[in-house]
Amino acid sequence: MSEEGIVLVASVSIFNGDKVLIIKENKPTALDKWNFPSGHVENGEDILYSAQREAKEETGFDVKLIGTTGVYNFVSSTNNQVILFHFVGEVTGGSLNLEEGVISDSKWIKVNELAAFENKDLREHRVMKQIIHNLLEEKIHPISVFNEQLI
């Protein structure tokens, strides 16, 4: 969702054991950049649902959200103000099926190995490095800090 230059994004570190899934984006604004599965929150969409939807669309995996590393506010490389909600999740179903034309590659990697990536290889590297640091330091807050949308 974007409103007057503010973009809301949901992002997920998907874990399977001690490894996290990263994806290589094939988008004009992020060509060949590694990132966590993420995308825009749609108008009226619950943030938790948005994170699960984006994970499924980009990777093919069903994900249970188990925590959050927090909310990140920054100006993107495309000069938008971004408010990014980053979640931690685990695979509950589905199978790897990368979104065609949008995601060019993926890999399961230990977080400490991801921390060694060059800045130029990461999308929005400053934010990615903050998230990676929080994952390494186990600064993960319970998912209950988010209130699900009441129907």
Concise synopsis of the structure shown:
The chain is α+β, with helices and mostly antiparallel strands and 151 residues long.
Describe this structure in words.
The protein has 151 residues and is α+β, with helices and mostly antiparallel strands. It has one domain (2-144): Alpha-Beta Complex (Nucleoside Triphosphate Pyrophosphohydrolase), CATH 3.90.79.10. The chain contains 3 helices and 9 strands. The protein has helices at residues 47-59, 111-114, 125-136; strands spanning 2-3, 6-16, 19-27, 30-35, 38-40, 61-75, 81-94, 103-109, 141-142. Strands 1, 2, 3, 4, 5, 6, 7, 8 and 9 form a 9-stranded mixed β-sheet that branches. A hairpin with a 5-residue loop joins β6 (61-75) and β7. The longest helix has 13 residues, at 47-59. The radius of gyration is 14 Å and the shape is globular. The two termini are 20 Å apart. The model has no long low-confidence stretch (mean pLDDT 93). It comes from Neobacillus piezotolerans.
